[in-house]
Structures are given as C-alpha cells and as structure tokens.
Amino acid sequence: xxxxxxxxxxxxxxxxxxxxxxxxxxxxxxxxxxxxxxxxxxxxxxxxxxxxxxxxxxxxxxxxxxxxxxxxxxxxxxxxxxxxxxxxxxxxxxxxxxxxxxxxxxxxxxxxxxxxxxxxxxxxxxxxxxxxxxxxxxxxxxxxxxxxxxxxxxxxxxxxxxxxxxxxxxxxxxxxxxxxxxxxxxxxxxxxxxxxxxxxxxxxxxxxxxxxxxxxxxxxxxxxxxxxxxxxxxxxxxxxxxxxxxxxxxxxxxxxxxxxxxxxxxxxxxxxxxxxxxxxxxxxxxxxxxxxxxxxxxxxxxxxxxxxxxxxxxxxxxxxxxxxxxxxxxxxxxxxxxxxxx
Length: 342
Hints:
CATH class of the largest domain: Alpha Beta
Order of helices and strands: HEHHEEHEHEHEEEEHEHH
Structural class: alpha+beta
C-alpha cells in the first residue's frame, strides 16, 4: 500500500476516532547498525534495545508515550565485530524535536552511546550504517525526510481489510494479555496473564487492544469514556503458546516477563460486528497491545489466511540461513558430525 504525506489530521468528534488520533501521525524509522565489538543479547532483544534507547529520553513517560520498537533480529545471537544489526522505531504522534534528537544521537554513535558497561550487549559497540523511512525505503538524514502515516492513510489501509472476510492476527513478539478480571481475581504474578488458548478469545483480545489505545489517548489529554462491550464473536482458529522470558534490571535483579506467541484467525464479515473495530486492529500493528508494549512486546501483523499483509515488517540485516553459514557455525557442525560419526 502506498504511503502518502498529507496535511493536518481530519477533525473527528467520535470517541473511537479519538483513540486513533491520539497516536497519529506515525513515522517509521529503520535503523541499521554495525557492531564494533562482540555482543551476546538474550533470545528476545526487545527489552535490551529498549533499555539502550531509553537513556536518550528525558524520562520514562516520554519514551513510553511516543515510541515503539520492533526487533526482527530477536532470536539471533551472538554477534561478532563487523556484524550488522537492524531494528525499527515507530514515532506515535511524536514531536519533531524529539525524533530529530534521536536521529542525531544515532548518527553520532558510538560517541553518543548512552551505555558503556561491557556487560550490556547494546552499548558503545555500535556504529550507524543507515537510516531509512520504513514506509518508502528512502534514506533519512533528518526528521523532515520521514513520511507520515496519518488518518487518511489509516482509512485507506482499513478499506483494504474490509474486503477480506477471514483475517488472522499473528504476534511477532510475545504479548502480555491480562486475563478477564473474573478469572484473575485470586491470581498473582505471571498467573494473571493469558498462557494458552483456553485463556484468550476475541472479546478479550479486542478489549485489551482498546485499553492500549485508550491509555495513549488519556496521556494525550483526551476524554475517553469507558470501554464499550466488545462484539461477542468466536475465533475460527487459535494457536497460541507461552514463552518464558526474563530481564536483569540496573541493580542486577531478575524479573520474569514472558508472553504469548502464535496467531488467532477470525471472521470479519459484515455481520460479525468487527467492521467498526477494523481501524483499531489495523492501527494496533504499530502500537502493539497488552502490557510492556513500549518495550516492543505485543507486536503483531494482520494477515490473510494465505499470509498476505499490508504492513511490511523490516527484515533482519542477515537471514538465519546466512548466519548458519558463518565459519564458526560450520566448524561446530563439522566437529559434531566428525565426533559422532553422523
């Protein structure tokens, strides 16, 4: 779908549109870096990349309100000197000055690196290679080079999805969805979150997506009424599973922060009750859903049943196949085969 840069966002008086307008316009920046020293991030990179970037923001509120990240290289590790690394940044109604400051800090790496601790995988061991507009692939040198995904663009993309009766939502990073209030009343910690298909249904998913956007709207100073009851519809197919994850805070404390992965397929026909909520589903691809979405969790793509998408995710700097062909990996494979006579 072609992205367009337009003028002001059209005025809207509906509460539903207020949810959308609170995070629009969106700008998408693809960042390609190169390691100047080796690094060994955890399996999920989202929390470590978030921690690295947050140092460039004046406070946590600023980071969580205006920025989202996507880490397509999650699962890749380790990295050697000279290896490339790529991730995406999404500015949600982000002030120009803030995005410009972020761009300038990236351009000044490694001198501008906010972290130098050798224990951190992402620190002053990275140098900028390229910045690109995630919607147009154009080279970016300043915030003025970034195109806008605005209200009009969102409506154009939504119109495409209205023509697709069967759709599915595929998570591309673990999502932390609180169970329904009645089901988590006596639960604590990670037990409060959806762990398998028996915990999740379409009404719950739509409610959590609404909650995520409503939180952004209230931070933007908008008066958002209580969430309306979601349509009571059944998923056609659900395949989800829980993945454990943890991170270490600045004091060395360990924290568990797992989430669901997988997909859920649903009927979006005219009589399904979902048509009016399609803009929220489309926009959620940029904002994420559930808890810790500012850390890159809860990201998803809308797909047709045969895998077609309207939002193209950026690719890792190197594919898993290319990484598997690294000399060290091939040497280890040969040693394993030789020792075991396979």
